[in-house]
Amino acid sequence: MKCDECGGRVTTERNAVRRYDVGGLPHVELHGVEVSKCTACGVETVAIPRVGQLHRVLAQGFVTQHRMLAPVEVRFLRKHMGLSSADFAQRMGVARETVSRWETGAAPMGAVADRLLRLLVVTHEPSESYVVDDLLRDLNDRAAPEKLSSVAVQNRKEKGWAPKERLELAEA
Ligand SMILES: [Zn+2]
User: Fold this and answer.
1) Euclidean distance between the first and final Cα of the chain, in Å?
2) pTM, two decimal places
3) Ligand 1 is a single-atom ion; what residues have CB below 5 A from it?
4) CATH of the structural domain 10-163, one choice from 1.20.1070.10, 1.10.260.40, 3.30.230.10, 3.40.50.150
5) What is the pLDDT of residue 86?
6) What is the spatial distance between Cα 25 and Cα 98, in angstroms, rounded to a whole number?
7) How many angstroms is it from 80 CA to the middle of ligand 1?
8) Domain chopping of the chain, boundaries
9) CA of 3 to the centre of ligand 1 (A)
10) How close is the Cα of 17 to the center of ligand 1, in Å?
11) Ligand 1 centre and the CA of 21: distance in Å?
């Protein structure tokens, strides 16, 4: 394989670890990705297949964690449901500015809105891997930590993404 930029030789690493910066989630680490790197100019290409399924795994990991949702997770979940800020504000019964404050972290979401968002997500995308009542009962309403981290692992055999032990969301 040759580099698109300079024509140099490209090497491929099959089981790499990279941050997932595409989805606006600075804290998500992907394991098992294929990375092609040009030996001449250093240009790197990361292959991320099945993005839709990856996003479902991430969304499920976010709504099933026990602490409050972090601002970047709120934004990710809204977009994951395909909602504009205005549509999301309408469904949550708040002003658009409120949504913007939740997503930038300028104002905390609050326990009731946090639960409603989770319900919207699980209704939008039902899953058999958890019971909604258990999910809500297990919440502890602890604020999200400053430093977030989560991991998704690509499983080549099963051809898809899976959470690393239910996404190991650090609660440091
Ligand atoms: Zn190159």
Assistant:
1) 43
2) 0.85
3) 3, 5-6, 8, 38, 40-41, 43
4) 1.10.260.40
5) 98
6) 20
7) 34
8) 10-163
9) 5
10) 21
11) 22
